[in-house]
Amino acid sequence: MGKLTVRALRAMLVVVLTGTVFVQALMVWALVSGSDPEDGSLPLTPLRVITILGIGAAQVALVCVWRLVTMVRRGTVFSHAAFRYVDGIIGAIVAAALVWFAVTAVNAPGQRDDPGVTLIMGGIGVAILGVALIVLVLRMLLAQAVARDVEAAQMQAELDEVI
């Protein structure tokens, strides 16, 4: 991975992480201060708590991606240490799906006249879980690559002994 690519990705990660921290702080402030009274159309307090948790899941994924980019730059991504960060990303995606299902459950009572919206939102939650499965498959590919790397290192060591 080139230096320009790494710098661009890190800049994007910093911007997104800064933005999420800002929005999360605003949501916490709105919860604590109670300055935004609910008009009854939506249950704002549960939605704010769910939003704070969802942003937290996104932040975990961002930090894990940052660590993986660092490992790629150093050439150490094909090691067992990378699994921790890939597992963190998978966990964050699953948490995001659960948060989305919570939003769907909070929103469902307001959709009694049009239950299709709730079904579509549930489908989006299932699609988010599908992304977690895709990353799990990529983790399996990483595991195969790490195993091949270890095997290649062992073969090189044997070859060095023969020579």
Distance between termini?
33 Å
Shape: elongated
Give the H and E element order.
Answer: HHHH
Arithmetic mean of pLDDT: 89
Portion of residues within helices: over 70%
Q: What fraction of residues sit in β-strands?
A: under 5%
Tell me the total number of β-strands: 0
Number of helical runs? 4
Radius of gyration: 21 Å
Structural class: mainly alpha
Q: Note the main sheet.
A: none
Runs in which pLDDT lies below 50 for 5 or more consecutive residues are: none
List strands and helices in order, with pairings.
Elements: H1 3-33, H2 44-74, H3 81-107, H4 115-162
Helix pairs in contact: 1-2, 2-3, 3-4
Note the main attributes of this structure.
163 residues; mainly alpha; 4 helices; 0% strand; elongated
Would you kindly provide a written description of the structure presented here, covering whatever features stand out?
This protein has 163 residues and is an all-alpha fold. It has four helices and no strands. The chain has helices at residues 3-33, 44-74, 81-107, 115-162. Helix 1 (3-33) runs antiparallel to helix 2, helix 2 (44-74) runs antiparallel to helix 3 (81-107) and helix 3 (81-107) packs antiparallel against helix 4. The longest helix is centred in the last third of the chain and has 48 residues, at 115-162.
